[in-house]
Predict the 3D structure of the following.
Amino acid sequence: MRKLIFLLLIISQSSYAVDTEQAKQAAKSIFEKSSSAYTKESLTKVFTSGGYTEEESSEYATKLLKLFNSDEFIDKIQGIYIKHFTADELVQISEILDHPAYAKFLRLRPLIQQEMSAEINKITTSIK
């Protein structure tokens, strides 16, 4: 009986390790796909429309892109996704991100955020 329990524990742990690795890869894929539309130029525009100077915006954009590419940050992002989704769900989400309409949404998101930020700035300026 002990051997059977021990064997089941070993099997479940190896399955968990595979699921964890699958989840980590899917989470990384989700982050990469959802942040790929951000370029230095698009982020600079977002920061500039938020009221920062061109120089500040460019500096922040550079720092943010560097952060996005750091292993430490990606590990943290993976952990957040894994905390909230199963490995199967993460794979499904990653597949959704490959849909052409969603790819377009991701590509246009920086521009949309820039336009939204400009509108929000107009509103907040008018209510001061």
